[in-house]
Amino acid sequence: MFQIRIHGRGGQGVVTAAETLSIAAFLENRYAQAFPSFGSERTGAPVVAFCRIDEREIRLREPVLNPDALIIQDPTLLHQVDVFSGLVPDGYILINTSRSFEALGVDEFARGFCAAHLCTVPATELALKHVGRPVPNAALLGGFAAVSGRVSIDAVANALRHKFSGAIAEGNVAAAREAYAFVREEMKEGSHAKTG
Amino acid sequence: MLKQVEGSRAVAEAVALCRPEVICAYPISPQTHIVEALGEMVKRGTLAPCEFINVESEFAAMSVAIGASAAAARAYTATASQGLLFMAEAVFNASGLGLPIVMTVANRAIGAPINIWNDHTDAMSQRDCGWIQLFAETNQEALDLHIQAFRLGEELSLPVMVCMDGFILTHAYERVDVPTQAQVDAYLPPYTPRQSLDPAEPVSIGAMVGPEAFMEVRYLAHVKQMRALELIPGWAEEFRRAFGRDSGGLLHRYRCEDAELVVVALGSVLGTVKDTVDAMRERGTRIGVLGITCFRPWPQDAVRAALAQAKQIVVLEKSLAVGLGGIVSTNVRTSTSGNAQAVRTVIAGLGGRPITRTSLERTFAQALDGTLEALTFLDLDHGVVERALAREREQRRSGPIAENILRDLGVVGARIS
């Protein structure tokens, strides 16, 4: 089982991201479960959502305590909420930022993790460019597909078309695809998370 | 058709496939998404003929359902928590009148203190109201139970409450197999009421009944519930043949063969319990699970048979009978053989407290080595409790308990994760 925890703020589409990721996995014939942290989701308040992906039926209903991947939709949470809590040693970290891990002040922490699994993507900028609103979730799912390989970018695109329709769907798909390409490029350079 | 959808959406689609004619509801979390989806279907005309009635309260929701059902319409509503309490008087009326309304209860805690998260206190508060109560383990089962509920309720002229864990199921996206209209039509015949209000053939429903007949009416309600115990297994079997799934029935046994310790629970926590049990089985622990799907009527004989071999029983329950302990465990004790079997009550998950494998495994291990007390509270923060008690000892005007504890924990308002 692969477990993902998504941290963001109310209004950034955190819950939608987890749901969309579960649809992407479902479209690839896997079992998936997505659920929010069930808070009173006010705009701007810290929000957490979870997604599990497995080859067999998922029965577990506890929150994701030991994520295999973290998606941080808002870097201002890094020093407010214990977003890294329970992350497995070879876990993935994907942060929405145009800055480096060092500039974010988390390089010390990240040193203990597998460098190839740490990644940044300017998801808000990509969302503004393609969707016209600062909703970074779709772009981050594209980045997640690239860094983890757990779902294909085509499945992410199809899932986004399940969740949204028309121009909004296509804008989100474009943001996801550009983020995917961005992260692939970062990985090729082998210097991701440190550049910028 | 396989779909990856929210639990609420899955239930709404199941209800729509049952061709309800009147849906009335008042919004309350975590039930709201279900009736929102149904409202959209009625508005778009994809669910027709059906009247969607926005009512002014939960009391009105159940009252309208009663009126609709008495007029021979297939009626549905949904609620949760305080909403269920607010409609309580009408809830008793629906069963007393023998009207087969189906209602989803998206299980949620009851205040005060106000809490929107999941536990079973709402459904348990109505356990003796005369409704059949079914508890879903997964979203697939929630979907399936609604289809079975209309059939069961209408056959017996009894209302049925389908309980599904609020948020944990209602707001979870997972895979469900949504049946076709033809499949549901074949399983669920059109509603033929035993009684109905019809201007062409006027009757009274709901007359005053005095001491001369009230006992008999109540006794017959009990007889009908006992009859449900006979019918439910057969209908679950028929459902399995028609839909290819093991959903519903009185109870589900999991790895109970040769189990020394059997854990009894209801609802979605069964999944986490099963994962815990699998891990303990791998290390040689003889442990199994008994999931109660039908809580009312209480499947006395089936539970007794399922627990017959168990030396120890742990009842894990998401509600607390304040001043007594466990509600489910009190029922379980009626199906055990007295002192020969130890029944321990573990209250867990109140107000949405996560129930984790780690805590469950520790608790089950304690039960096996004989150190688990008769009544325990999973992951209770004893430090917080001690400090609250100390405040009360130290000063008369100690203030509101809940707010004091939040201040103690350093949280402003409720914690969100």
Question: How would you sum up this structure, described in words?
Answer:
The complex is a heterodimer of chains A (196) and B (417). Chain A is α/β, with parallel strands linked by helices and 196 residues long. Chain A has one domain (2-189): Pyruvate-ferredoxin oxidoreductase, PFOR, domain III (Pyruvate-ferredoxin Oxidoreductase, domain 3, 3-Layer(aba) Sandwich), CATH 3.40.920.10. Helix content of chain A is 39%, strand content 18%. Chain A contains seven helices and six strands; from the N terminus they run E-H-E-E-E-E-H-H-E-H-H-H-H. Chain A has helices spanning 14-27, 101-104, 107-110, 123-130, 137-148, 153-163, 166-189, and strands at 2-9, 31-36, 46-54, 69-72, 92-96, 118-121. Chain A has a six-stranded mixed sheet, covered by helices on one side. In chain A, helix 1 packs across helix 6 (153-163), helix 4 crosses helix 5 (137-148) and helix 4 (123-130) packs antiparallel against helix 7. The longest helix of chain A has 24 residues, at 166-189. The radius of gyration of chain A is 15 Å and the shape is globular. The termini of chain A are far apart. Chain B is of the alpha/beta class. Chain B has two domains: 2-243, Thiamin diphosphate (ThDP)-binding fold, Pyr/PP domains (Rossmann fold, 3-Layer(aba) Sandwich); 251-377, Rossmann fold (3-Layer(aba) Sandwich), CATH 3.40.50.920. Helix content of chain B is 42%, strand content 17%. In chain B, the strands form three sheets. A seven-stranded mixed sheet of chain B has the order 3-2-4-5-7-6-12, with helices on both faces. A six-stranded mixed sheet of chain B has the order 9-11-10-13-14-15, sandwiched between helices. In chain B, strand 10, helix 10 and strand 11 form a beta-alpha-beta unit. In chain B, helix 1 (7-17) runs parallel beside helix 7 (139-156) and helix 10 (269-282) packs across helix 13 (357-368). Chain B is globular, with a radius of gyration of 22 Å. The mean pLDDT of chain B is 96. Chain A binds chain B through residues 18-19, 22-23, 26-27, 31-40, 45-48, 57-63, 65, and chain B through 2, 4, 6, 30, 116-118, 138, 167-168, 171-175, 268-272, 274-275, 352, 354-357, 414, 416-417.
